[in-house]
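Morning, I've got a small favour to ask if you have a moment. I owe you a coffee for this, so here goes:

…
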Amino acid sequence: MTIRTALVALHRALVEAERREHEKTLGRLSGGEFLQALISDPVFSWLTPLTTLIVRLDELDDATDAERTAVLAAARALLSGTEDSEFRRRCAALVQQSPDVAFAYGAAKTALR
């Protein structure tokens, strides 16, 4: 599994877990309604660091080795670093709540080794 594939799978699992929680509170949303909430609702802003990393990986085709190394280091820091962040707190909670998130998280960490 490539790093990008693993991070996209983690992102997907996190978004699905968040959607289930969101819909428990606010009721069922159509795909378009949820996408709009995902983009504009500050509740989902904690996902931005992962989303940004995936975009940066997509832009690496013409990157230097130093740029590739920096993106990979950022990905490792996001998933395994010691910095306390909203992403780390929310991701850790979802790893405990959702087997899908736990599996995707483990696969992403393995891909980053």
